[in-house]
């Protein structure tokens, strides 16, 4: 999240949008201030992640106004954003439900032993997914996460192949990787090693 928000906040002219800014440090704490947005950053953003339980605020572009959810059975990542386009409008953080209701969708998930376990999907996770990078995974997700992608972190490059389907227990095949899932995987990775 630090990288996402830090890259969104840049020096700008005085007629640009002003937003609240709060970028978490390594302990997850931040001091709220304000930022003048770059010309291309025409949205104020507030975001919450459920896995690492972090909040952040800053400037961004409309394409950054996305929500994401990935439920792999053994772990669930959620990213919620709110966006607005008036000065200092990103006051509140979006809420993430700690106990979302089941929605009736069923998908397979992997637990380290088997990938044929049944997972009851929750909230708006209405697609089953199978993903493949270094490891195979199955679970519930959002249709926005049903794309392939890659991420280059300098010394490591991750390629995600993903397949998605919308009927119960349909995620039996493995294809590939998607950018939203990569973002959520990175959040899971840092959350796992931040303790």
UniProtKB/TrEMBL annotation:
Record keyword Glycoprotein present: yes
UniProt-listed PANTHER family: COILED, ISOFORM A (PTHR20914:SF9), LY6/PLAUR DOMAIN-CONTAINING PROTEIN 8 (PTHR20914)
Record InterPro entries: CNF-like_PLA2_Inhibitor, LY6_UPA_recep-like, Snake_toxin-like_sf, Toxin/TOLIP
UniProt domain Snake toxin/toxin-like: residue ranges: 106-171
Cellular localisation: Cell membrane; Secreted
Protein name: Uncharacterized protein
Record-annotated UPAR/Ly6 domain positions: 16-91
Cellular-component GO terms for this entry: extracellular region; plasma membrane
Swiss-Prot/TrEMBL keywords: Cell membrane, Glycoprotein, Membrane, Secreted, Signal
Keyword Membrane: yes
């Amino acid at each position: 999240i630090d990288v996402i928000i830090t890259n969104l906040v840049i020096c700008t002219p005085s007629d640009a949008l002003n937003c609240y800014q709060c970028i978490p440090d390594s302990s997850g704490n931040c001091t709220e201030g304000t930022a003048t947005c770059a010309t291309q950053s025409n949205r104020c953003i507030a975001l919450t992640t459920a896995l690492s339980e972090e909040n952040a605020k800053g400037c961004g572009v409309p394409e950054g106004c996305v929500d994401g959810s990935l439920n792999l059975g053994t772990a669930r990542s959620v990213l919620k954003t709110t966006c607005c386009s008036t000065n200092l409008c990103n006051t509140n953080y979006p809420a993430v439900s700690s106990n979302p209701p089941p929605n009736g969708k069923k998908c397979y998930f992997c637990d380290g032993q088997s990938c044929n376990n049944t997972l009851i999907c929750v909230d708006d996770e209405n697609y089953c997914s199978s993903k493949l990078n270094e490891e195979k995974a199955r679970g519930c997700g959002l249709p926005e996460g049903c794309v392939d992608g890659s991420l280059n972190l300098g010394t490591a490059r991750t390629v995600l192949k993903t397949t998605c389907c919308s009927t119960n227990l349909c995620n039996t095949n493995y294809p590939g990787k998607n950018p939203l899932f990569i973002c959520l995987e990175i959040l899971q990775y840092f959350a796992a090693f931040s303790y």
